[in-house]
Amino acid sequence: MSDFIRQQVLPHFGISCKNLTISTLGNGHINRTYLVRWAEGEFVLQKINTHVFPKPQNLINNACYISEHLHQQQCFGRYHLKVIDPIAAVNGQFAVDLGEHGFWRAISYLANSHTIEVVSDSAQAQMAASAFGHFAAALSTLNPDCIENVIDNFLNLPFRIKQLKQAVKDNKNNRLDGCQHWVDLILKQTALFDELNQIEPKLPLRVCHNDTKINNMLFDKRDMKSMAVIDLDTCMKGYLMYDFGDMVRAFCSPEEEDSTALDKVVARPEIIAAASKSYIDELADIITPLEKRSLWLGIKVMALMLGSRFLTDHINGDIYFAINRLNHNLDRAANQLTIYQSLIAQESQLMTLFE
Known about the structure:
By secondary structure, this protein is α+β, with helices and mostly antiparallel strands. The protein has helices at residues 2-9, 56-75, 122-139, 157-170, 180-187, 190-199, 240-251, 269-282, 289-316, 328-345, 347-350, and strands at 20-24, 32-38, 41-48, 86-87, 96-97, 103-107, 113-114, 206-208, 217-220, 225-229, 236-238. The protein has two domains: 2-109, Phosphorylase Kinase, domain 1, CATH 3.30.200.20; 122-354, Aminoglycoside 3'-phosphotransferase, Chain: A, domain 2, CATH 3.90.1200.10. The radius of gyration is 20 Å and the shape is globular.
């Protein structure tokens, strides 16, 4: 792949020097990401997964709108994080479409940046949640109509449940026997489905990140303070409860997302409390009372929804999320559904954070 990138991709971005390095970057499930370095500079190069993003130009357009808006907010003193900028190809476009050889884009690289996979303590949760809340507040002044859809029904729980039911019905890979108990757990959550159906239509539509995992936050390795919100590929119209819920379900466990040590997978209440306060504080003048109450629902929904998506992909034969081992998506599903069970077990205590 390195030779192909050197010979066929980088010249489109005006890079033709021989003395450069290309290394893989991050551990995302979807796109292929590389760090390209040469004597005069460096940038991040991505091959967009056009199976997941069938309209990749929408993704590019959204990223450009959001980058421009965040820079404007910086000028007004309303945004204090760094901004990841799209880098134009030599033809002035912000992507290179090589047909069957891939859809490529380049974005700026932030030196001294570092990502983490697990939130270590309440202080780290508070800092990261404040940054995500700050990002949401900055986007609150961006007209949602400017942003195009990139994945239909991305955070649509009824649609994800429908997909799961279809996967169970088809059982193309004869994997159902090993995970039927997890399927049953998901399909029994009818009270949650009803609650979501009642609340979501009443919430204001906003521009949201839609993938607020802790590893989509860059920290400055020199002092481990928040540096930038990254991976804007799924930025679309949405609801704060999903951004918040995804963030908290990713923050709250002391184990990584694919850990099989389920006895250690738990929703840590002190992490949830710290993240909730700092996120809500950043949005104090923006968030509505109903939005605030919906945040607890968002945590539950996102843990259940991601568990359902991983489980559906496992049953279907691992066609969406990249895997590194046998039953990887089943392990991920079990992990997220264990978080969901932990959340439910602590519901009477945790829901008071959002009153």
